[in-house]
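Researcher: Let's continue the batch. This sequence belongs to Molybdopterin molybdenumtransferase, and it's 344 residues. Same format as the previous ones, please.
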Amino acid sequence: MKLIKTEDAVGHVLCHDITQIIRGVTKDAVFRKGHIVTAEDIPVLLSVGKEHLYVWEKDDTMWHENEAAEILYEICAGEHMHPSDIKEGKIELIADTDGLLKINREALVAVNSLGEMMIASRHGDFPVRVGDKLAGTRIIPLIIEKEKMERAKEAGGTEPIFTIKPYKKKKYAIVTTGSEVFKGRIKDTFSPVIREKLAAFPSEEIGQIYVDDEKTHILEAIQKQIAAGADLIICTGGMSVDPDDCTPGAIMATGARIVSYGAPVLPGAMMLVSYYTNKADGRVIPILGLPGCVMYAKRTIFDLVLPRVMAEDEITAEDIARLGEGGLCLNCEVCTFPNCGFGK
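Model: Same format as before. Here are the C-alpha cells for Molybdopterin molybdenumtransferase:
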C-alpha cells in the first residue's frame, strides 16, 4: 500500500476503514476497507480529517477483493440462483426456485483448502425455497493473487459447486396393505400423513388401493397403479421381517430395482427404496415401502428421502448408508427440522 493525498485518491482502493465520530450522533465507518474512492467522496474524507489516505497500489498480478469475489461466485453458482450485492469481498447465493440443493462436496473442500477464500453453505440434499440463502462466500484479504484465483477455478472443477434441482410434478398413488384396514376393523390413519407430506411438493394423487396381506394381491395393486399412470407409488403396512409381512416381497416381485431394504435411520429403519422401469413407456417409477413409524413420528427417513424423489435425484445404496451419521432423530419436544442435525 502507499500514502497519497486525498485529492488524488479518486479511483484508488482504501486499505483501511475511515471512521466518523460525531459526539452523541455517530461513531461508525463512513467508508470501509476496500472502498473505491469517487470524486463525491473527497469532501467527506476531508471533513473527517483525512488529508492523506493509504491506498492499494495497482498490481497486474493481483485482484481486488470484490473482483476476486465475483470469480468465486462464478465457481459456486449454478442455475436457479442469483448473487447478493458485493460487499467487502462477500457474496451470498440466493435461491430462485424451490428444489433440492446439491453440493459438489469434493470441490467445496478443495476450494476451502486453498486459504484466503471461504465458502460456507447450508447442507446439501435438503429442500430449499425461493429466497433462501444457500451459501456465503468471502475473499479474506483485501487483495489476492490472480494465480490463486486460477487455482480456485481448477479446484472447483468444470461444473458449479452448487446446483438446485427443481421439483417435478408427480402423480402419486398409494397402496395400503393390511387385512385390519382392508376389512374395516381399524381406520386408515396412515394415508393422511402421506398426503400432508406430499402437499409440500408439486403433486397429484391419482388413487389409493386397499389390499389385504396376500403377496399376490399387493403385487396386483402395485401393477394397477403403474398401469394407471402413477409417477410415484407409496406402499404402507407389512414392512417388517415377520413372516406375514409381505409388502417388501411384493415390491421385489414387480421387478423393481431394490436400492435398499433397511436404513441406518431412526425412526425409519425398515424403509424400502426401489425404482421400477416401465417397459411400456420407459418411465422410471420410484416405489417406496414406508415403515409404520411414518404414521406417528414427527420426522422419519421419509422426510429425508421424499425431497430427493420429488427432484428426481436418484438415490443410491451408498446415499442410504451415509445417513447413519445424523440418522438419529432426537424427538425434540419442539421440532425444528430441517434446522437440526437429523439427516446431516
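Researcher: Any comment?
Model: The chain has three domains: 2-55, 62-166, 170-322.
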